[in-house]
Every structure is written in C-alpha cells, then in structure tokens.
Amino acid sequence: MPQRAAIEVFFQLGRSRVFACAVDWPGWCRRAKTEEEALDALADYASRYAPVVGRAGLKLPAVDSFTVIERIPAPPGKAFSGVDFGTIDEPCSRDATPLTAAEAKRLAAIVEASWATLDDVLAHAPAELRKGPRGGGRDRDKVFAHVLGAENAYARKIGVRHKEPKPDDAAAVGALRADIAAVLRAARAAELATEKGWLPRYAARRIAWHVLDHAWEIEDRSE
Description:
By secondary structure, the chain is of the alpha+beta class. It contains six helices and four strands, in the order βββααβαααα. The protein folds into two domains: 4-90, TTHA1013/TTHA0281-like (2-Layer Sandwich), CATH 3.30.2390; 95-221, Four Helix Bundle (Hemerythrin (Met), subunit A) (Up-down Bundle).
C-alpha cells in the first residue's frame, strides 16, 4: 500500500488571496481565495509535483491530509501584499532551523529537478502559447526569459552573482544553476547570505515554486 501521511503546510495570507505551501517540499505551493480552496489546489497539484521529486530520487507520500503548522499574516498597513499579486515572499518559522547535510542535499536536488522539468516542458511546447490572462499572454521564450531574470535576482539573495544569462546561452544558464545548487547543497546554518538575503530553505522553496509555476503555466497554455 502507498505510504500515507499528513503533509505539513503553512499559509501565507494576503488581503484577497492565500498561498498554501508544503513546508518540506520546495515548489509545492498553490494560491486561491480561501484557505480551504488553497489546500484543495495543493492536493490537486500533488500528481503534477510527484514526478518532479521523482526526478530527485524522492517519493512524495500519498496525500492523506494536511496539517497546518503556521499562518503568516498579511503585512499591516498595506492594501495588498505579494500574495495578492501571485508571489510567496515570506519564510515560515521552520525555515529558521539549521540544515543537516542530507537535508541540504535534498533541497538542492528538488530545485535541480524543477529546472529539469522546466527544460522538458520548454523542449516540447510550441513557441506560441494559447493566450489568456495568466502570464500576461507571454509566449514560451518570453516566459523562459522572465524565469531567468527572476532567477538571476533570486541568486543574489544567496550570494550568487552572475550576469543575467540569455535564454539561448545554455552554458551561462547552466553556470548560474550550478552555483545556486552548490550554495543550497552546502548550506547548514539557517542564516542570511547577505544583509537582505534569504534563508536557504526559503530560497529553495521560492526558486522551485517560481520555476514550476511557469512550467505548469506553459503546459496549460500549450495547444
């Protein structure tokens, strides 16, 4: 019988939307109008996320239930938060715990599997995607360029500095990814790499989520 377990999640709340994120599974985050709907979306995406972690040599437990361990409120005094605009932008309390060598290796492996998933999607998607409100109607190559631009900025949050690679420069893309993965794999202490940097667990979650969110967007908008 498949292994079943309650998946630990946290909510990041906005004014009009909420993200549900699996604490220990980087990239498995979904957004909706309510907490219940966000959990439903997270469960719906388990079948899409499982092959990603399979690439990393891991097995996603069959989802029996979710255990909510934390709610991160919307920032006070602001009409909208990053959540309302579609971005996870806060670490959870678990992110402040140190990493073992095995945990760091696991995080890096899931991020690398997310990149591999995106690469496969790009290789099979048409250049022109079905138009729609999500992604602003960007076509395949522009979506990838957006991912790379964001990733280059994310890398700086963990002390990795590269010139932003062009989408058709496989060597430069590979070098950026290799340095990001190396930092995550070597992470032990839960501390910021720079003054306004990111904790390693949060960095892995944010990077994998952004990559997979757009990989799945491209799949959904492909004809």
